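G., the chain you wanted modeled:
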Amino acid sequence: MRSSITSRQIAAARALLDIRQSDLAAASGVSINTIRNIEAGTVVPRASTSAALRAALELRGVCFIDDQGQVGAVVVK
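Predicted structure as tokens:
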């Protein structure tokens, strides 16, 4: 099973891709308000929400590094 991504990783991945929250919302099917709240740290996303965000970012070329359970940096392919 793939690890969950953090709110900071979501924001960092968006920055690397130079996309807005609204772009990620459209690509992932997650509402922009939910993305704002996740990135602000005011909510913890459901597993399905985290998976949708991760999949949308990975489709755009982001690779999330998971080293022995420690999820780390994001890299654009």
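DSSP finds four helices and two strands in the chain.

Shout if anything looks off.
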